[in-house]
Every structure is written in structure tokens, then in C-alpha cells.
Amino acid sequence: xxxxxxxxxxLSKSFGGVQAVQDVSFxxxxxxxxxxxxxxxxxxxxxxxxxxxxxxPTGGSVRFQGGVINGKKPHELAMxxxxxxxxxxxxxxxxxxxxxxxxxxxTRLTGGIFSAGFRLPLARREEKQAQEQAFSCLEQIGLAHxxxxxxxxxxxxxxxxxxxxxxxxxxxxxxxxxxxMAGLNPQESKQLVDVLLAMREQGFTxxxxxxxxxxxxAIADRIVVLDYGKKIAEGAPEEIARHPDxxxxxxxxxxx
Length: 256
Ligand SMILES: Nc1ncnc2c1ncn2[C@@H]1O[C@H](COP(=O)(O)OP(=O)(O)O)[C@@H](O)[C@H]1O
Ligand SMILES: [Mg+2]
Known about the structure:
By secondary structure, the protein is α/β, with parallel strands linked by helices. It has a domain at about 1-70 and about 210-255: 3-Layer(aba) Sandwich (Rossmann fold), CATH 3.40.50.300. The protein has helices at about 45-50, 75-80, 95-110, 115, 125-140, 155-170, 185-200, 215-220, 235-240, 245-255, and strands at about 5-15, 20-30, 35, 60-65, 65-70, 80-85, 175-180, 205-210, 220-225, 230-235. Strands 6-7-8-3-9-10 form a six-stranded mixed beta sheet, sandwiched between helices. α3 (about 95-110) crosses α5 and α6 (about 155-170) runs parallel beside α7. The N and C termini lie far apart (about 45 Å). The relative contact order is 0.18. The structure holds adenosine-5'-diphosphate and magnesium ion. The site of adenosine-5'-diphosphate (ADP) has 11 residues, from β2 and α1. InterPro entries: AAA+_ATPase, ABC_AA/LPS_Transport, ABC_transporter-like_ATP-bd, BCA_ABC_TP_C, P-loop_NTPase. One of its GO terms (molecular function) is L-phenylalanine transmembrane transporter activity. It comes from Geobacillus thermocatenulatus. Keywords: ATP-binding, Nucleotide-binding, Transport. This is ABC transporter ATP-binding protein.
């Protein structure tokens, strides 16, 4: 048996006649940072949504920590230790940064970000503990000084970091990031890269979908490349950068 934390096997999704993802297999080991890349329309979002329980696959399976998770909902996966961020920011803009990070516990414990929005009460002692852990998570990411700011007042790139802190606060076994670099300026991207690398040092495991090749090359341990729904390559960044099929797929996109 393989010791992979996440095992995606022949995962497929068709929408009517469109085969958005076809027989895609790969794994993520504990402590790894794996990226899924590919041109627009390659099937990245569809794959990501199947793994994170947003949509059911039409074929294949996903195993997480040894158990099949097909058909489980995002909040059930959160309780099992898989959390995710979204391509569009999902912070509560009127809440403080600290409160937003604490939502990560509510999501993990009670399931569902929406119930968390109603501030389901935790016991007082738990609340205090959650607050301390959220603060220490912000410290690790270098955002402790912003703990009491309203999230909505912060620059976009900083909000993205808060979102990642929220995904990480419950110490999940796997964090899924949906295009973490999207919309960030170069300085913010660099800051995010530093944060992700530091988190990997601390033992976090990541699977992320990303369009920005440069970042992926800089931080991923392994890259899975999709094109027209199929996996066309998998390997270390150096291998992927000079893989003829990958170059062709990306050049094709630039020509459009
Ligand atoms: N809900 C949907 N209904 C029909 N077709 C879809 C749907 N979602 C995605 N697709 C199609 O599946 C393919 C892959 O899309 P997507 O996963 O969004 O790719 P990417 O994220 O790599 O740009 C595209 O051809 C897209 O048009
Ligand atoms: Mg997409």
C-alpha cells in the first residue's frame, strides 16, 4: 500500500458531452507541496472541486488518509483534516483578522463556514484557547500586528494571507489552495511565497492549483500538468520546465 496522504485515481468528470477531467491520477505525500497547472480550460478547477467535495466525480476515486472520500461534502472533509481556500476571497470583511482566523476552528469543529458566520458559541474556555491559537498562527505568518484590524480594510494580498491563516489554524493534514497568486501584485506574491515556504518547513502539506508558472516553479516539489482534461506530465519543476508536451501546451495558449 502506498503511504500517500491524498491519492487521486483515474478521476473523471464529464459535463454533458464535455470531458472536463479524464482519468487523472496522482498522489500527495505528507509534507509535500504539489501543484496542478495547465492552460485555461485544462480542467484544474474541476479537478480541485472534485477533490475538495464541491462536485461529485463521474468516475474514479479520491482517497484521503487511506479512506475513500468520494461524495463527502467540504465541511465533512474539513472535519477529517482537509481545508481549502477559494479563488475569490471569502473573508468576513466586518470581522477582525483574528475573528476571521478563528472561523477556521468553527469550520473544522461544526462544519460549514456559514454556521461559523453566525458565530456559533464555543464554550468560554474553548473560545479563549481558539483565540490564542489563532493569534499564534497570525504570528507565524507575520500578521500578529493586524489581529484587531477589520479584515475588509486590508490590502488584497494581506487578506489572502489571512485566508491562508484561517485554513491553517486547525492544523489540517492537507491544505488546498485555489490559485493563491491570482490578483496579487509582485510584492504580495513574493510575501505569499515566503509564507508558504515557511509553512512547509513547519510540516504543512499543500495541494494547489495555479496558473502562474513562475511561482509554481519556485515553490512546488512536484507538478502535475493538465491539458484538455488529461494529465500530460508529472515531475519535479526542472523536468516540467523542459518537458516538450508542457511547452507545447503553454505555447499553444499564448498563440490564442
Ligand atoms: N459546470 C460546467 N458545465 C459545463 N462545462 C464545464 C463546467 N465547468 C467546467 N466546464 C468545462 O470543462 C473544461 C475544464 O474547465 P475548468 O475545470 O474550469 O478548467 P481550468 O480551471 O483549467 O481553466 C472546460 O472546457 C470548461 O468549459
Ligand atoms: Mg480554473
